[in-house]
Design a protein that fits this description.
Length: about 160
């Protein structure tokens, strides 16, 4: 936030392009749905006091966008298994699946690479216990994982 600023211009461009696009906001945060999934973008911001006076540009920030995964279904089998089916995001490296009960905290239970299907079966679950699941996609870029937001949590009683 810049003291005295009445608005901000946010410039962004896709990596490997030179064309900058502009968004305007009066607040200090901005959400846009114009960005493509799994693309790298550069951003910079300039503060304005009316349109006559402006600050210098902020330094550029580089980020990669990721879409949120959706849990399509949770189902239980006659045995002690719970099957989770989730949406796929084209271009990701894989998915991380997390689980908890009402008495435990979230823990990573598996990492699934893209080469596998978008279903996973969690074995040896106790009958009568409610299990909560969430999933998030990740993409490895230059040896570093970039994570999507977590899916909405879904639960099932075994």
């Amino acid at each position: 936030k810049v003291s005295g600023a009445t608005s901000y211009k946010v410039w962004y461009r896709k990596a490997n392009t030179s064309t900058w696009y502009t968004l305007i906001t009066t607040g200090t945060s901005l959400t846009t749905k114009k960005l493509a999934n799994l693309r790298t973008y550069f951003f910079k911001v300039k503060a304005y006091k009316s349109w006559l006076y402006s600050s210098s540009y902020s330094s550029q920030v580089k980020t990669t966008t990721m879409s949120k995964v959706k849990i399509n279904s949770l189902s239980k089998s006659v045995s002690t298994k719970i099957k989770i089916k989730y949406s796929e995001i084209v271009g990701e490296t894989g998915y991380k699946i997390y689980r908890k009960t009402s008495k435990s905290s979230w823990s990573l239970v598996t990492t699934r690479k893209t080469k596998y299907s978008n279903t996973w079966t969690n074995s040896n679950r106790k009958k009568g216990t409610r299990y909560y699941y969430r999933v998030r996609a990740f993409k490895t870029v230059n040896g570093k994982n970039i994570y999507a937001p977590y899916s909405t949590t879904k639960s099932i009683k075994r």
